[in-house]
Design goal:
- By secondary structure, this protein is α/β, with parallel strands linked by helices.
- It folds into two domains: 173 residues, Isopropylmalate Dehydrogenase; 123 residues, Isopropylmalate Dehydrogenase (3-Layer(aba) Sandwich).
- The chain is 38% helix and 16% strand.
- The protein is built from twelve helices and twelve strands.
- Strands 3-4-2-1-5-12-11-6-7-10-8-9 form a twelve-stranded mixed beta sheet, with helices on both faces.
- Helix 1 packs parallel to helix 2, helix 4 crosses helix 5 and helix 8 packs across helix 9.
- The longest helix is centred in the C-terminal third of the chain and has 20 residues.
Length: 334
C-alpha cells in the first residue's frame, strides 16, 4: 500500500493553549512521518507556528481529501474554538471544542475513514472546569467512546514497553486496588495487544513486585505472595508467558530488558520513571484494548514554552509513526 492510498491518521488538537498546534506543524514539516495525517482542530490556532516554519494550512471536509492536499499543505478538519487561545493559559470556553475534536477523531477511526487516532496533550482540569469532563484522563474517555470497559495504558519506547496495572490513583491507594483479577486482566489485554498490534507472536511479560525487593519472602510485605504470584500462575496456566514477580529496581537495565517484550508494573511511577529516563523524547502512550488504534506523545501541554517555537515534535512524530505501524499490523492480523 502506498503512502497516498493508505488511510490517514486522525490527530486531535489537544489543549489549544498548549504546544499541540506547534508540534503538529513541526511534525508535518519534519519530513520524518511515514504516513499522511490530518488535524481535527481550529486552523486559525495553527497560523503562527505554520508561518514560523513556512507550512501552508488547508481545511478539508472529510478525510478523503487528505491524499490530494497533503503533499503541499497540512490538512485540517475544522473544529472551531469559542475564543482565541492565549499561549499557556487554558480557557474553559475552549474545553468543549477540545473534547469534540477527540470525539470526531475517534468516530472517523471507528467508521473506517482514519487508520488510527493520535491525540495531542490535554489539560484535564481545563476540561473539568469548561466541559464537565467526567473522566480521569484521555485513556478512560477513549474507552468510553469505544465502548470498552477496561482499557490498558502502555508506554512504548525504542528499548522498553511498560504497562502499569494501576494508573491515576494515589500511591496510598495502590495496595487496596491490587488484586489477582486486575493483574490477570491487564496481562491478558497486554499480551493480545502485543500479538495483534505489535506483531509479536509469543509475547513475554515480566511482572514487577509491589514492595522493595519484591517483598523479600514476605518480610517487606505480602502482596507478592498473596496477590501477584497467584496472578502469574494463572497467566502461565492460560499459556501466557509471564514471569516474576521481580524487584522493580532490577527490571530495567539492558540485560533484563532483553528478556521480555513488556513489563507490567504495579503502579504508575514504577513503570513510567524508567521509560522516561531511558528516552523521554521518543516515548509513546498507547492505549491497548480499544476497537481502534490510539497513540499519543508521552508528555503534557508544556504551557511554559507554548508559543515560543521551542517545543520538540519528536514524541508526536514517534506517536504518529507507531500509530501507522500498529494500524497496519492490526489490519494484517484481521
Amino acid at each position: 500500500m502506498s503512502r497516498s492510498t493508505a488511510l490517514p491518521l486522525a490527530v486531535s488538537m489537544g489543549d489549544p493553549a498548549g504546544i499541540g498546534g506547534e508540534i503538529t506543524v513541526g511534525a508535518y514539516a519534519s519530513g520524518a512521518l511515514r504516513r499522511n495525517f490530518f488535524l481535527v482542530g481550529d486552523p486559525d490556532a495553527l497560523a503562527m507556528p505554520a508561518e514560523r516554519v513556512g507550512v501552508r494550512i488547508e481545511t478539508i471536509g472529510s478525510p478523503a481529501e487528505v491524499a490530494a492536499i497533503y503533499p503541499w499543505a497540512l490538512p485540517v478538519l475544522p473544529e472551531r474554538l469559542a475564543a482565541p487561545a492565549p499561549h499557556g493559559k487554558p480557557l474553559p470556553a475552549n474545553a468543549p471544542a477540545t473534547v469534540r475534536a477527540i470525539e470526531r477523531a475517534v468516530a472517523l477511526a471507528m467508521a473506517g475513514e482514519a487508520a488510527a487516532v493520535v491525540t495531542n496533550p490535554i489539560n484535564k482540569k481545563a476540561l473539568y472546569d469548561g466541559a464537565g469532563f467526567a473522566f480521569p484522563g484521555h485513556t478512560e474517555f477513549l474507552a468510553h467512546l469505544g465502548g470498552v470497559r477496561r482499557p490498558v495504558m502502555m508506554l512504548a519506547g525504542p528499548s522498553l514497553r511498560v504497562v502499569p496495572v494501576t494508573i491515576h490513583i494515589p500511591l496510598a491507594a495502590v495496595p487496596a486496588a491490587l488484586d489477582a483479577d486486575l493483574i490477570v486482566e491487564t496481562a491478558r489485554i497486554t499480551a493480545e495487544g502485543l500479538r495483534r498490534d505489535f506483531g509479536i507472536p509469543a509475547p513475554r511479560l515480566a511482572v514487577s513486585g509491589l514492595n522493595p525487593h519484591a517483598g523479600e519472602g514476605g518480610s517487606i510485605g505480602r502482596e507478592e505472595i498473596e496477590i501477584i504470584t497467584p496472578a502469574i500462575e494463572r497467566l502461565r496456566a492460560e499459556g501466557i508467558d509471564a514471569a516474576g514477580p521481580y524487584p522493580a529496581d532490577t527490571m530495567f537495565h539492558a540485560a533484563a530488558r532483553a528478556r521480555y517484550d513488556a513489563a507490567l508494573t504495579m503502579y504508575h511511577d514504577q513503570g513510567l520513571i524508567p521509560i522516561k529516563a531511558l528516552d523521554f523524547e521518543r516515548g509513546v502512550n498507547v492505549t491497548l484494548g480499544l476497537p481502534f488504534v490510539r497513540t499519543s506523545p508521552d508528555h503534557g501541554t508544556a504551557y511554559d514554552i507554548a508559543g515560543t517555537g521551542r517545543a520538540d515534535p519528536t514524541s508526536l512524530i514517534e506517536a504518529m509513526n507507531l500509530a501507522g505501524l500498529l494500524a497496519d499490523n492490526r489490519a494484517r492480523a484481521a
